[in-house]
Amino acid sequence: MRLSTAVLALAAASAHALNVYRNDGQSLVKRDELDVPGQNPLQFCDADRTDDIITIDEVILTPNPPLAGNTLLIAAKGTVKETIGEGAYAKIEVKYGYIRLVSTTADLCKEIKNVELECPVEKGDISILKSVDLPKEIPPGKYTVTADVYTKDDEHITCLTATVVFGRKTLGGMFDL
After folding, report:
1. Which of 3, 6, 39, 94 is 20 to 30 A from 131 (CA-CA)?
2. d(CA 132, CA 134)
C-alpha cells in the first residue's frame, strides 16, 4: 500500500472518537485537543505534540465527509521544524471494522512524490494540494487508518488517525447507511 493511499484514507475519514481514559472512565484528554484544525475528520494520536517535527496548521477536505465515486480535494498547510531526509518512514495500519487489512512500514521519501514533494523536505512552511478520484466500488463499512511517521533516527514527525464510514445505497438511496 502506498503511503499516499494511506494519507488519503486518513484524509477521507469521518470523525474518530479517540479519547484517552483513566480507569474511572474520566477523559484525560478533551477530544477537541486531538482534532486537526480545519474542515476534516482527522485527529492527532497524542495530545502532546511538542516534540513533533511537523506542525499541522490546517487540513481542508472537499467534500467533507468524502463520498465514494466523487473527487476528493485535499488542501493542507503546516510547518516543518527541521529538515526531513532520506530514511524517514511511516508505520501504517488500516482496519475494516475490527479486522486489520494492512499493517506496514512505508518509505516516506518514496511516497511523498505522489503529492509532488521530495526529500529532503526543508525546514519552513509547507502546503499540499491534491485531488483524488475515489472509486465508486468502495465496500460499505467502517475503515480506520493510522499513520505514525518518524525520521531515520526515530524522531517523531507526526501521528494521525481517522475513521471513515462508507454506506450502502439501497432503494434509490432512501435507506443509505
Report:
1. 94
2. 6
Look up residue 2 and give its three cell numbers.
502506498
Task: Please give the average per-residue pLDDT across 122-150, as a whole number.
Answer: 95
Residue 138: how many other CB atoms lie within 10 Å: 16
Sign of CA dihedral 167, 171, 172, 173: negative
CB 52 within 8 A of CB 158: yes
From the list 123, 117, 112, the residue with the least C-alpha distance to 89 is: 112
Answering whether pTM is above 0.85, one says: no
User: CB of 39 within 8 A of CB of 23?
Assistant: no
> How many C-beta atoms lie closer than 10 Å to residue 162's C-beta?
23
Element of type H or E holding 8: helix 3-11
**94 found inside a domain:** yes
Question: Is the model's pLDDT at 30 over the cut of 90?
Answer: no
Q: What is the CATH number of the domain that holds 43?
A: 2.70.220.10
Does residue 50 belong to any structural domain of this protein?
yes
Total domains in the chain come to 1
3-state secondary structure of 6: helix
Whether 177 is in a domain gets the answer no
Domain residues for the domain of 74 are 3-165
User: Taking Cα atoms as reference points, which of 146, 155, 137 lies closest to residue 9?
Assistant: 146
Sheet of strand 71-80, all strands in order from the earlier edge strand to the far edge: 54-62, 71-80, 124-133
What's the rounded Cα separation, in Å, for the pair 78 and 87? 21
